[in-house]
Design a protein that fits this description.
4-stranded parallel beta sheet; globular; Rossmann fold; 2 domains; 281 residues; single chain; alpha/beta; 14% strand
């Protein structure tokens, strides 16, 4: 019995050593591609296409307009650690050239995912999926097929969501309702098949003369709704709505603008829900 115990000790030691050697031979998981994005719209699409192959860091808070964003030292550090930087080429992204020139970004691939139209609309989401997949492939060619398949899958999910929301809008009979809204929400309002009588730009550009023009057009078209943009003058249309005797709502251009809307699907759901609540007959 004592002899067996003496043999057991070296056997256990040998097994432990072998287990350690086998563990050391197991290949480590490849490092994730570090991607920095300017907005939550780009961050979400990139996460959907890149999956577990990417680590996405977004820099502009979803409640903030890109034109109001100031670069911080932490943003420069994030970019220095990235392989890919994605931005929209929005007119408001004026900080980007300075950010790119701010430090040593050797080996950084910069791609402007420049798509016309509202990023909250399904068609732009589908276009963005293809462009983001192509950008990821520029840096990581070996996973090109995975990115392409993920783009196809995401576009299918976007189409399912679009059909679901169109059905809701049709059932509530909001088609053709005359509205005036923020320039940034015009694309989504048009997609929802509302009649966009006119739009207004940055709140600072709403001069008395421009407001009078909007009121005149609104009254002539019997505008029922004024739509503000959460990220750019959420109260801009208050006075206009009062003059017109119209309802007023606030919609978000970015996922995460409203509570519990961190995905594009939840963000557009919430926007459509707000529209329907305001206009359902």
């Amino acid at each position: 019995m004592k002899y067996s115990r003496l043999l057991l000790v070296p056997i256990l030691l040998l097994m432990s050593l072998l287990a350690g050697l086998l563990g050391a031979c197991t290949p480590a998981a490849p490092p994730k591609m570090q991607v920095v994005t300017t907005t939550s719209l780009l961050a979400y699409v990139t996460g959907q296409i890149g999956g577990d192959k990417v680590n996405v860091v977004n820099i502009i808070p979803p409640t903030q307009h890109p034109g109001d964003f100031d670069v911080k030292p932490t943003d420069i550090k994030k970019l220095s650690e990235a392989s890919l930087f994605l931005w929209h080429n929005f007119p408001g992204e004026v900080f980007v050239p300075g950010l790119l020139a701010s430090g040593n970004h050797t080996g950084l691939t910069v791609v402007a995912v420049d798509i016309k139209g509202s990023w909250m609309t399904p068609q732009v989401q589908r276009d963005a999926a293809d462009k983001v997949a192509a950008a990821l492939t520029q840096v990581d060619t070996k996973n090109a097929s995975a990115y392409q398949q993920a783009a196809l899958d995401y576009k299918d999910r976007v189409t399912v969501k679009e059909n679901e929301l169109r059905t809701k809008l049709t059932l509530t009979n909001v088609t053709g309702t005359p509205v005036i809204g923020s320039f940034f929400q015009a694309g989504l309002l048009g997609w929802a098949e509302l009649k966009v009588v006119d739009t207004y730009p940055d709140p600072n550009a709403l001069t008395p003369a421009r407001v009078k023009d909007l009121v005149d057009k609104g009254k002539a078209s019997q505008v029922k709704l004024v739509v503000d943009n959460l990220q750019n003058g959420a109260d801009a249309g208050k006075g206009l709505a009062a003059e017109l005797g119209a309802k007023r709502i606030v919609l978000s251009y970015f996922p995460g603008g409203f509570e519990d809307t961190t995905t594009w699907e939840k963000a557009i759901d919430r926007n459509v829900e707000i529209l329907i609540e305001a206009l359902a007959k």
